[in-house]
Each structure stands twice: as C-alpha cells, then as structure tokens.
Amino acid sequence: MIEAVPGCLVENYEHLIEDLKLSDANDRHVLAAAIACQADAIVTSNVRDFDLGSIKALPPDDFCTSLYEKNPARVFQTVRALRLRLRRPPKTADQLLSLYERQGLPQLSRLLHQEIERI
C-alpha cells in the first residue's frame, strides 16, 4: 500500500489514543490516526462504533459510490486495471462485480454493471 499510495501512512498519532472515548476501545487508534491526518472520513463497515463528531464514518459501498459519482471514468479505469491484474484465477468483469457485491459493495456493483463492457 505504501508503494501504491505514497503518503498513505499515518504516523505520530499514538499520543491521541488515550483521551479518545469510543464504544470499542480497540478502535481508538483508527480515530486517532484520522484526527492526526485531518481526515474528513473513516471508511469502515463498523460505522456503529464510531461516534466521531466532525469526522464521518462511511461504509465502503457509500465511499466507493461517491467516488464513482465524482469521476465515473476514473473508477471504470481503475476497476478495469485491477481486474486485468488478477491472474490466479483471472476474472471476467461479471465475476469481479459479483465478488464486489458479495463483499459488501452492492451499490457500486450495480452502477458498474450498467456499462460492464468498460471493465
């Protein structure tokens, strides 16, 4: 991930953990890292455990769908490139979108199915 997305690693957030209050104390490091890097949102399937105030907790499908709405061409390009890198086993566009749906991305999968030939 560090090579694919330079600058994605959040450091020096540990001092914030102790003062944070969440329903699951094991999630405090996630919020601390988000605060340290001034994130607008945390992408998580566990939105119920995050009462974040100014930082939104977004389910992955909502986040991915918002990316699609902002730049559908870029999302199609990225998903196609990702699919073409899958080799063990390779996947058709339909297989990949079915996998996305099973993994909790039904909205994104439906949107991408509308122009599946682009994948």
UniProtKB/TrEMBL annotation:
InterPro entries in alphabetical order: VapC50_C
Q: Which domain of life is it from?
A: Bacteria
Every copy of the VapC50 C-terminal domain together lies at: 60-114
For this entry, the protein name equals Toxin PIN
